[in-house]
Amino acid sequence: MIKVTSSIDWNKWDNFVYSHPKGNIFQTSYMARVYELTQNYEPVSLAVVDQESNDIIAILQAVIVQQMGGVLSLFSSRSIIYGAPIFDEENENIEAVRTLMEHYEKLISNKVIYTEIRNMWDTWQIGSILDQSGYSFTDHFNALIDLNKPIDELWNQLKRDKKRGIKRSEELGITIETCQSKESIKIFYELVKETYNRAKVPLAPISFFEAAFEVLVPKQKALLLFAKDTSNNIIATQFALMYKDRIYAWYTGSREEFLKFHPGDALIWYLLKYGKEQGYKVFDFGGGGGPNKNENLREYKSRFGTEFPCYGRYEKTYSETRSRIASTGLKIYKRLI
């Protein structure tokens, strides 16, 4: 017999995720703690366990994100699932996923407008279960760089403009430094907020990044980088995550007046070298957008030698009315910033 529980033994949880071939940082108890410490974020942590052995069979870590508080949360809340659910594939416990998703749906459907599952691999094994649960699949690209090659080969696969940009940043004396002070999150946030405002997209609250720094950096699961000019001005930043064999380019930001110094190129090249030197096998460059949009994003990332597997996303809307109101609100937000 199996049961679904939200009272998960943290050691068993993290051991299950770490030993799973599809285990990722977003499904760990570390990220649950980050969500708990973030304003207007709520973790949803569920596990299917064997009632006799209490062993974990399947895991799902989601996060409810509210763009606005109070009554308006009904029109701005969504649930995001990164790289899950994962289940015991060795013993083919796929029905545990069905049980897990049924429990999740009962728990979440009245709290959010929609759920989005952001896949990190081919989900053919559980696709039919998600289809039957009312989820719709859409194509969406991931962006990955294989680090299983010599550093010279990583350099050679960069396009000419990226090589020029990296060399130019070196000539101008741009240096990359690792930050160990939580107080620096304020500077990091200013840079990222400036970048997101230019792109006219919402940004997570500063408490999210403060929590990530507090929880993940001491565990060597995250790295905060600053790019500085010769006057010691911080001109760009990168917050990277690290877990198992993967290093993630998570959030980045830069000052517009310093873009001509190519600090973004320098930061990515630093992470590629760091990842290679530390034995990571995959550089996760984040999403690559959908087939009919984000072409500029894919073009930029492709110039570092990025590949774009299409693992797609699943989405389920619980209220079409609230979804339309939220969409209208986002359009107004973009006009205001």
From TrEMBL:
Gene Ontology biological process terms in this record: cell wall macromolecule biosynthetic process; cell wall organization; regulation of cell shape
Alphabetically ordered keywords of this record: Acyltransferase, Cell shape, Cell wall biogenesis/degradation, Peptidoglycan synthesis, Transferase
InterPro entries: Acyl_CoA_acyltransferase, BioF2-like_GNAT_dom, FEMABX, PG_Glycine_Bridge_Synth
Any one Gene Ontology molecular-function term assigned to this protein's record: aminoacyltransferase activity
Key word Oxidoreductase present: no
Short name of one Pfam family: Acetyltransf_6
BioF2-like acetyltransferase domain segment(s): 159-289
Highest taxon, organism lineage: Archaea
SUPFAM superfamilies per UniProt: Acyl-CoA N-acyltransferases (Nat)
Family according to the record: Belongs to the FemABX family.
Name this protein carries in UniProt: BioF2-like acetyltransferase domain-containing protein
